[in-house]
Amino acid sequence: MRFFSAIGWIVWKDLLSELRSRESLSSMLFFALAVILIFSFSFSTDEEAVRQLIAGIMWVAFGFTAMIGLGKSFAIELQHDCLEALQINPVPKGAIYLGKLLANLLFIVSVELLLLPLFVIFFNLDILAKLPVLLVIMVSGTLGLSALGTLFSALTVQIRAREVMLPILLLPMAVPVFIGAVEATRGVLGGEPFGFYRPWIDLLLVFDVIFVVVSYWVIEFVLDA
Amino acid sequence: MSSPAIRAELISKSYHHYQVLHELSFELEAGTCYALFGPNGAGKTTLLKILATVHRPSGGRLAIMGRDAVADREAVRLQLFLIAHGSHLYDELNAVENLRFALGLRGASPADREIKLALDRVGIGAFADLKTRYFSAGMKKRLAVAKALLVRPPLLLMDEAYASLDEKGIALVNQVIRDATQSGAAVFMTTHDRAKVAEVAHRAGVLRQGTLQELPLEALTTSDALF
């Protein structure tokens, strides 16, 4: 019971802190807006190019925006030695990991939902009928990124060059997530039949499970070495 | 016979070939307050963090409340509470939220009345709804003491127990220590303030170059330099 309540407390604390400080939110939104504007101006006259590239553009914005949030996930614990307090709390470190993961997932998906209308406006997308499947892809892609990112955020938090190390570790490991998410998104937005891009969603879900399970076991050694 | 609150046997700690602690052995019984002195860099905080299970010793055996502090860390952590140099507070949460979070992680959910009583007792009841980013260092220390009051640990560890506190704050900490030891808890603290700690300490020791030497309590009230 303490395990699940600890997860809840971590989610509550992280989301409340972010809602009040808006530290990550503002930088994530500004970065994503810049990406959308740059790509929108680059392809404003070429509808075919937009159709071909929009899935990649979306996941460039989602992925790099997520990285800003993930980088701060454990870094905020350095203030006032809160990481030390978390380490010596009588709660399994897996609960801390799952709490952080859940908070990151909720936060990043919320930011992605704020960005979605901007994609619709700037790239003239028609997504209403495809929204449920698109949301499944967004959540499963973001879960894979968050699972890895939360682990690497904990792993690099004590390193001086953590802002550099996080993308170096995360990007190569997240390649399967990016490939699966981009291909599935391309299928949905391109109006392909569900069976055509379903294997990519399955791939995403498989990687989600692998990343969450492996990170859950590894975090004990990362946080309590 | 019950186990001592702390049983340290030949504890050593080194960082990158630099030996900070050399085979320390001591015991601390329940209901006892131990004051640890030592010059800057002597290893007081390192020892305290080993006792708090933040760090693992490089050698030796440590048991807290009869449980191995390395092999049985989760159980040991339930038995202790650390008031550290860092406040362990989140700037964006207010005093009550910080208390609820810290206690919630330990599986406790104190009633509003209990929280209010604890905050009033440490003298910051009027600031219950204020974000701790606006707290002074002394107020943060008082909030940490409030946490300890709500946790009621069998072993209370305090690093620089009186740092940042005014006279009333120091008296408050001493009263909390008295109450804790009278109720059977053990207190292990580091400090530089001999006169203040002399009011509550049952035992004292000095850490010099990584070795621990027990001090007579009279040494706390003399003017002779300890180190």
Blueprint of the fold:
The complex is a heterodimer of chains A (225) and B (227).
Chain A lengths: L1 H20 L1 H20 L4 H29 L6 H6 L5 H31 L7 H26 L5 H12 L1 H15 L4 H30 L2
Chain B lengths: L5 E10 L2 E11 L4 E5 L6 H8 L7 E6 L2 E2 L4 H7 E4 L11 H11 L6 H10 L15 H15 L3 E4 L8 H16 L3 E5 L3 H4 L5 E6 L2 E5 L12
Parallel strand pairs in B: 3-8, 3-9, 6-7, 7-8
Antiparallel strand pairs in B: 1-2, 1-4, 4-5, 9-10
Helix pairs in contact in B: 3-5, 4-5
What keyword list fits this structure?
heterodimer; A: 225 residues; mainly alpha; 84% helix; 0% strand; globular; B: 227 residues; alpha/beta; 6-stranded mixed beta sheet
What this model shows, in words?
- The complex is a heterodimer of chains A (225) and B (227).
- By secondary structure, chain A is mostly helical.
- Chain A has one domain (2-222).
- Chain A is 84% helix and 0% strand.
- Chain A is built from nine helices and no strands.
- The longest helix of chain A is centred in the middle third of the chain and has 31 residues, at 93-123.
- By secondary structure, chain B is α/β, with parallel strands linked by helices.
- Chain B has helices at residues 44-51, 73-79, 95-105, 112-121, 137-151, 167-182, 194-197, and strands spanning 6-15, 18-28, 33-37, 59-64, 67-68, 80-83, 155-158, 186-190, 203-208, 211-215.
- In chain B, α6 (167-182) links the parallel β7 and β8 (186-190).
- In chain B, α3 packs parallel to α5 and α4 (112-121) crosses α5.
- The mean pLDDT of chain B is 94.
- The chains are: A mainly alpha (225), B alpha/beta (227).
- Chain A binds chain B through residues 1-2, 5-6, 8-10, 12-13, 16-17, 20-21, 76, 79-82, 84-92, 224, and chain B through 52-54, 73-75, 77-78, 82, 84-93, 97, 101-102, 104-107, 131, 140.
User: How many runs of DSSP E, i.e. beta strands of chain B?
Assistant: 10
What is the rounded Rg of chain B?
17 Å
Q: What is the subunit organization of this protein?
A: heterodimer
Number of domains of chain A: 1
Q: End-to-end distance of chain A, in Å?
A: 25 Å
Order of helices and strands of chain A: HHHHHHHHH
Strand order of the largest sheet of chain B: 6-7-8-3-9-10
Task: Work out the number of β strands of chain A.
Answer: 0
Q: What ranges of chain B have pLDDT less than 50 throughout 5 or more consecutive residues? A: none
- Biggest interface and which pair forms it? A-B, 28 and 28 residues
Shape of chain A: globular
Strand proportion of chain A: under 5%
Give the C-alpha Rg of chain A. 18 Å
Low-confidence stretches of chain A: none
**Mean pLDDT level of chain A:** 93
What does the main sheet of chain A amount to?
Answer: none
Structural class of chain B: alpha/beta
Morphology of chain B: globular
In this structure, how is the largest beta sheet of chain B organized? 6 strands, mixed
- Kindly estimate the percentage of residues of chain B that lie in beta strands according to DSSP: 25-35%
Tally of helical runs of chain A = 9
